[in-house]
Amino acid sequence: xxxxLLLLILFVTLAASAQPPTRFFSKFGGGGIDIGxxxxxxxxxxxxIVGSTTSFGFGNADVYLNLLDSMGQLVWSKSYGGAQAExxxxxxxxxxxSGFVFVGYTNSFGxxxxxxxxxxxxxxxxxxxxxxxxxxxxxxxxxxxFSTDGxxxxxxxxxxxxxxxxxxxxxxxxxxxGAKIWEKYYGGSADDDFQSIILASxxxxxxxxxxxxxxxxxxxxxxxxxxxLGDSLSSKKFGTVNKAERCYDMMxxxxxNLIFCGSYDTSYYNTGKNDAYIVKTNLxxxxxxxxxxxxxxSGDKFISVTKSTxxxxxxxxxxxxxPGFAIEAQPFLTDVNFGYINSTTYAGVNDEEAYxxxxxxxxxxxxxGYTKSFNSFSEDVFIVKLDNSLLNASxxxxxxxxxxxxxxxxxxxxFNNTFYFDNKDNLELTYSIWNSQGILVQKNVTNNDKIPLNxxxxxxxxxxxxxxxxxxxxxxQ
Length: 477
Prior knowledge:
globular; 9-stranded mixed β-sheet; 37 strands; mainly beta
């Protein structure tokens, strides 16, 4: 009776597995360099990813826009650009038409050098307008958001205008036609930039970035606040004297504090021995606390931060360099006091790096960047979907024939119609494969580390039960 009850429970679970998985991984790209820099979840629980590609498009590099469904399958891809190079760094979803607006930079269009590049599309990726901002020198767009009146506020840095070498740049753009409403430059005599922009809960526009003008010349975190007209309200810097800190992202948490993430150089002469670094302030920029997390190598940093939808936790995308190995992408979960909760390293034999992480409507997280492993010709766009506990890869869904995931403890993937798993001791194991309706479609015994799928299995979600191992789900396209 106990065995029958277990089978009934299994069938119910399998029937429910046709729902979007809370955990999956995927990659896509061509024969060139393809990278994901920005991501948002759409209103119908799909994922829009923006970045750059040299595999597709019109020139040297182009903006790369990709829509994934809730299962991690690629719905469509688009590229935008000219004869030279274009990159997009951040994207937002337009609530008025479910379309997209993204920002980056171009040297195919504009006034000279690189210019800030903004594109608005409909929900199918068809361009509604595109425009550039900048002068004769180099100008870069980093992030954007919607203003309170529904127009676009964007930020970056400019070498063309301002007060010093590089200055923080912020502009307001008309959502209807892309026309510039105003633009402002802030900074001093040295290098300054804005990396992140948010509408803060106190009604201000908060910008997070870096300054060498208002701290020391080694670089400090920078919080700059403006009003809806772009006029300055306050400026604060955070850093240790004669130490180089680098800020990559900022957000407001559920308790109305600001969280900055980046790196902190621990070497005596600031030679690049970096720890991952977090700073918390209140909305006025008053320092609350900070923390460093040390990796095994010299290139440790937090590149992106998001907040959990349950509780007050924070999740970071962490880049960890291991000497003698490669760069590893790591989602990193902490509590509200930066106490470590969990992390999972996603890495192959070559580099993986994650440039953005967001929370998702199913209370999980989605992380994107690039991978050089897993049969990639060069860099491919890399996507990892996680639940709110950041469970390790032993029960994660692989999407597509070329989707492979390796962790320190597990090697589990589906490739070329064959399922591979960890069986380094060549144990004789019984396995069974069930489809999404709970029907047994294959069963046998193996002492190998791979299971070829029977011919004739159609596209579906399958669960494989291997003796003494956690059940694993995978998708056959």
